[in-house]
Amino acid sequence: MTRSxxxxxxxxxSPNGLGAKEFWTATLAGQSGIGPVTRFDASPxxxxxxxxxxxxxxxxxxxxxLIPQTDRMTQLALTxxxxxxxxxxxxxxxxxxxxxxxxxxxxxxxxxxxxxELRKLWSQGSQYVSAYQSFAxxxxxxxxxxxIRNGMKGPSGVVVSDQAGGLDALAHARRQIRKGTRLIVxxxxxxxxxxxxxVAQLAGGRLSTSDDPERAFLPFDAGARGHVPGEGGxxxxxxxxxxxxxxxxxxxxEMAGYGATFDPAPGSGREPGLRRAIELxxxxxxADPAxxxxxxxxxAAVPELDRSEAAAxxxxxxxxxxxxxxxxxxxxxxYSGAAPxxxxxxxxxxxxxxxxxxxxxxxxxxxxxxxxxxxxxxxRVRTALVLARGYGGFNSAVLVRx
Length: 402
Prior knowledge:
This protein has 11 helices and 16 strands. It has helices spanning 20-28, 72-88, 111-123, 133-136, 141-150, 165-178, 195-202, 241-246, 274-285, 303-317, 338-352, and strands at 5-14, 17-18, 34-36, 49-51, 100-105, 157-159, 183-190, 232-240, 253-262, 294-296, 323-325, 354-355, 370-371, 377-378, 383-390, 394-401. It is α/β, with parallel strands linked by helices. The chain is globular. The protein folds into 2 domains: 5-246, Thiolase/Chalcone synthase (Peroxisomal Thiolase, Chain A, domain 1, 3-Layer(aba) Sandwich); 257-401, Peroxisomal Thiolase, Chain A, domain 1 (3-Layer(aba) Sandwich), CATH 3.40.47.
């Protein structure tokens, strides 16, 4: 259970870049993908901004037979998987089918597909509802469609823990590789920018109602007022290090540590669980806090949640003890896709020696964070910590290193 697990391929579908390199270039340049919603008329709603994946036309990336069967979320996930496999130099048909698995995260499932079929049910009748509704809305559909398309019959599954799910999926994938599976496709992609998805997200009470794309999503800022929702995420290829080296694969980095906790009941007076998740990830990697070169924050942009995250980081690393960044200010919170996208950014940071900025934010002094803002910071990055929290109390932390 101690074999090293590494990342050999990245596939990104992000509001500020379609493709891994495009995303990273835009992120370093501070280019935001947040803007007015275009996928439906959001004018009657109190929230009208989102991070939408630009320039994605399903028929250019997904086989035509799959388009009527799949939600936009799954079309994005299939595309990101194709890119990740190509980036890793993996041809699935050349590997034993039971040596490959798929573990993804999902926060909402195929909301837009489900919405359209429910509209048909009530306006036209049950005979007009697509048979594909039976699975296209489901949380596990990305794992299923990726595995079917690529002939992957090894250990597979789906994790549902909101924003924390992307890291939890990567951890479960690592666990399966340590048990002997050769390769796992993992990560998360969500897409619920539609009226039904909008109402569900509004119910959480954490969305920003600002109409200014530069001031709507301001984690750790005095003007924090909630987050901007988004779509997209990242798919990564995880392999056992020895197998990756044997085939001469390019290795982005090692998934070295993981920790997860659940917050205590509100009003209990007990400490939130994020600090403990960080400590567990460090212990799992055999790493000291001084070894961590950057923290990619969860960045809820809800004042009390920002406060608790800043306190957890300061408790482990010391006040202003480590550079902290939240590039999701350029994409919005992508739910299960957000943390895998941060993992991709962390691996690029290791590769290029650059910490991406947190855009448009002025850090509150009382948070005691060394927040990277304005422009990328040059640094020797060998170890990066990625944090994620899910609605309801989920906390996850993953440590990646060169």
